[in-house]
Amino acid sequence: MEAEADQFEATRRRAARKLAERGKIPGFRPGKAPFEVIRRYYSDEAIYEQAVDLMVDDVYPEMLKEAELNPAAPGTLEKLEKVDARNCPSSPSRFR
User: What is the pTM of this model?
Assistant: First the structure.
């Protein structure tokens, strides 16, 4: 599975909102803190992990349907590779 950087950014923001709804950020109602405040309160890594989980939950059923597979058990995530555009400016960012 590959996701464009803008698609993953939208998922990161959705993941941050989800984290903010579960936790209590001082000065904000649950789920109402701005993205940058959520980033400072939680870590980028926590938001990234939540975003990956959301992407897999969204894309995995589509991939199974497209491949016409009926698995007997849920799949597992074997490898996660993050390509950073800053290291390779000639190609778009992709998350695999």
Answer: 0.73
